[in-house]
Amino acid sequence: MSVKFKGDWLYTKNWLAVAPVKLNREISKIMENFSTLILQKIRMHIISQDLDWPALASSTVMRKGFETIYIDKGSFYKNMVIERKKAGKSTQWQIRPSKRYAKGSGKTYQDLALFLEYGTIKMPARPLWRPMFDEVKKIFPYEDIKRAIRF
Fold this sequence. Notes:
151 residues, single chain, mainly alpha, 52% helix
């Protein structure tokens, strides 16, 4: 018994063979660009000090010699990374502080980010990542992903 197909089955078969690879490549490019944009925005918030953080304690200002938050020698700023991870056939993008240890503190930059984000017993919270998440979810590239799916 044979089956008679209607339509362009050869085209469909070929399209299905390349679609996952092509789609993954397109979405990966979109997410890499979006990740770079997020990292730039995070760094701009650190430089501009515009997130309505509580002021540093006077003892901290005396020790540091200046009032800026998140900036001592620029190491926290410089140690934020975009990491590309393969997960099976797909790619995941992460933006995070480095897992490296901050000089003299015995803590990783990830630890310091948590202390700054949520505060400690001795220090008020100075959120950077949560406001950034709220800001970038409004500009997530949904339309670019829809166009990539349509290719």
